[in-house]
Every structure is written in C-alpha cells, then in structure tokens.
Structure prediction request, 437 residues.
Amino acid sequence: MVTQVYHLRAESQGMPPTLVSVAIGVLLGGALLGAAFDRRSLAVVGVAAALPDADVFVSLLLPGATNAALHTIVIPTIAAALIYYDTTRRNRSWLRERYDWYGVRVAWVAIAAYAVAGIGVDLFSTESVALFYPLSDRYYAIVGKFVLSTQEGIVQTYLTVGDGWLGLASPGTTGTHHVSSWLNPGDGERRLRLIESGWQAVVVLTAAAAVPAKTLIDRGDR
Amino acid sequence: MPTSVVHAAFAVVLAVGLLGAYYDRRALAVVLAVIVAPELDSALGFVMPGAHRTVLHTMVLAAVLAGFVYWDSQRSESWLRGRWGEYGVRVAWVALFAHVFAHIALDWTHLDGINIVWPLVDQFVALDGELYLSSEGLVQTFIDISVDPTTGQQVVDAGQSGTTQSVHVSTPVQPSKEPVGPVDRRFPIAVGGWQLYFLCIGLFVLLARRRQSDE
Prediction:
C-alpha cells in the first residue's frame, strides 16, 4: 500500500473516547441481539466494544502499543474463526452446550462490537489504528470527504489512487507515531476524554435513550 | 446537514433494534421517508429567509407529533391502530425516535445548528463542546455559564448562532443566500471520517440483520 504523509489539522479530533465506543456497541447490541437482548448480553457487548482501548495499559510496558496491540483486526478475525469452528464444525459445540443459542448470538454480536465499535470508530478518525498489527506496524486512518459538486464533479479524498495502488492516510508506524492517551499522554496534559464533539454527545445520548425504549418495547412484545 | 445518507444510516441502526418483531421492508421505508422529509424546508428558503433548519427541524414539531401519537394510541378508536394495528403505532414511534435522534439532534451539532424551538423563539443553536476528566475534575464545555464582568449579569452560551434573518445553512437547493458567480451545488455523501463510519455501521447492521433472518 502506498501511504501518504498527512498532517494533523489544528482542529482535528483525537481518539474517539471509550464512552463513544461503548455507546455505539450498545446501539449495535440493540439492533442485533434480537431475542438475546437483556441486561447481561448488553453488558457483554458494551465491554467488548470498550476492550480495544485497554491497549493503553500495554503501552506502559511496550511503547507504541496504544491503538495497536488490541486495535488489530487479527483479534476479531481469530475470535470469529474460533466461534465458527466451535458452532458449525464440531459435533458438540462447547458454546452451545454451555449457553445454548443465547451464547452463540451474544458471541457474534460481541465480536461485531469489538471490531466495528471498538476498532472501527478509531480507524475512522485522525487518531488512526495499526490495523494489521503485529503483521504490519503501520497506523492507518480513514479520513477525508466524498462530495458531489455541480462545479467540481466527484470529490473523493478518503482513498488516494496512485501508481495503481489504493492508499489510506497514515501518520506513521508504532515506532514513529505516538498515540497519546489519558494514561500515557506523551508530553501533553493528562485528560480522560469522555466526549469530544457534538456528534459524539448525540451518539451517547441516543444510546442512553434507546436502551430504555428497547426494554419497554420488548416488554410489550412478550 | 450531515448528509441525508448519514441520517439514514444512523436511522437504520436505531430502527432495526426498535422495530423488533415489526421489522420489515415497509416499516424501514417509512422510517427512511420520515428521515429525509425535513429537508423539504430547504425549498421554503426561497420564500422565507432562513427556512432551512427552521420550519421542519424544530423540536417543537417533534414534540407536537409525539403528543399526537401518544394521544391517538391511548384512545379507544385510535386512527393509527384502526388502520394499521399495533404495527402502525410501533412504526410511528420508531420513526419519531429516529427523526429526533438521527436527524434533528445530529443537525444540532453541525454548522450553525438548528432553530431548536422555532416558532416560540427564533434562535439557531449549535451543540459543540467536550466532556473530560482532568486535574480540574469533570469539565463540560457544551454550555458555558459565565458572568459578564461589565454588567454583572449571568451569560449562558449554548452555541447560539443567529436568527432566521442572519443564518443561512447551505443546502444543494440553495447553496447561499445571494450567489456570486456560478452556483456550486454540493451534495455531500460523507464529510470526515465519522460520517463515512456511520454509513459503514448502517450498512453493516442492515446486512447482519438480513443474515439473521435466514437462520
């Protein structure tokens, strides 16, 4: 992949906070858990969405682990392969025997929350994610815009096309790019960010409103 | 606006969960129609200054609609229930929920925001700020309350941006109030990483839900 040098804009947003990951995880859980939706399954899915951000703890021992060690697509891929093998390839599925269909559904939604809400939200921000760690230590960010204009035609800057390669923006590798966090702030001020912009506030509020709404609805459906 | 595509994607995530047993293609289509409809106030911009993000983007309209759905679904000869049964009542509530959170609330955080309680008060408000924990404790900057040093009066800054007279939120229908040179109509699909991210989540939920029904 060809990568381009990019500069973090002054007004750029940092890492979408864990609270936002949890909110998106909760929204995914509400949409996909179906009959398995209850307090316990929602908690599992919320924790799965928050889990990738725990790599800030790893960064204290292993410099450059933030947004890399647990933000890698390798982890949900392996988890999905294990669940698939257990539930379809084996004669007696451990998961199904232990938790029945409920466990299978919750496991799949939790993996989706880990990948989509946990890793995804950071990948689509300037904070960037080492998506293929440890296979590659390069950070990637999907940022840009896609606009149809009557004067300029199609404007698309998420992907750059050059030399026959598709390139994503990348601020560097785990060796050169430090992702600052509340635990390991680099030279910045220590701050635990909960919400850092208007749209994130809306996502958190929406999740907070959707859970009671869904609970109310499920009670009526039964 | 964060584009209609982004509103629709967010609405899909909400609708799939909240429609529950009533989820089908028709219900989803109704929710999406309700999501796109408020943009019709862009067209009013030609006859009424500042109509976009005012006439159909006000929380007053949402509150009136919620009041109507509640009143109608409670009475014995309910119009919604009589016509479409419980399905109709559910779809109405979900469409309203999506309208408030996936459309109005998101627009509230974008550019000059929305004219939130028009026609009661003509004031555009934009939601922007941060919430964080630091050595100063829990800090929020969405609503700043301070005391004006000269007058001694309390000042509340909740992102007030202007009135229908001063604010024009650009739309492809009417990009600017008084165009200079060739008119550039821009139809944004997604701007910034997070908007593309929302498109991906909406698509993901739609596909995942379809797979589930095959089981």
Chain B has a mean pLDDT of 86. Chain B touches chain A through 51 residues (CB under 8 Å).
